[in-house]
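User: What would this chain look like folded?
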Amino acid sequence: MAVPLDQGALTQEVMNLKDGHAELRKEFRILDTKMDNGFALLSQKLDTRSKIDWTPISILVGFLLSIGGALYWPVREAQSRTEAQIENMRREDEARVVKLWDEHNRIARDLAYLQGQMHPLPKP
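Assistant: Here's the prediction, encoded as structure tokens.
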């Protein structure tokens, strides 16, 4: 057997459900807005943290390059002086070799002359 329904009570229940549903939808919209704002804030914080501040790095690189240049300068100057000294020594050695060669040739010529004087070639 069916229970007789009270139309007024049923209408009141439907109205309560509609009001509860509307309130629930309103709370979901508020919660959705809060979550969107929270994710946006989290994304902004992560972006801020993941950015690299290049200013101190560029200052450090410039500083290290200037120190490296200051330390390399004396080495380069010493290397240039050493190369110049080696070039001078090479030129002096070449002059000595030429002088010794000329001296050797003079001695060889003198020896040949003396040998020719002591043992002249037969005349044909």
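The mean pLDDT is 85. If you want, I can go into more detail on any region.
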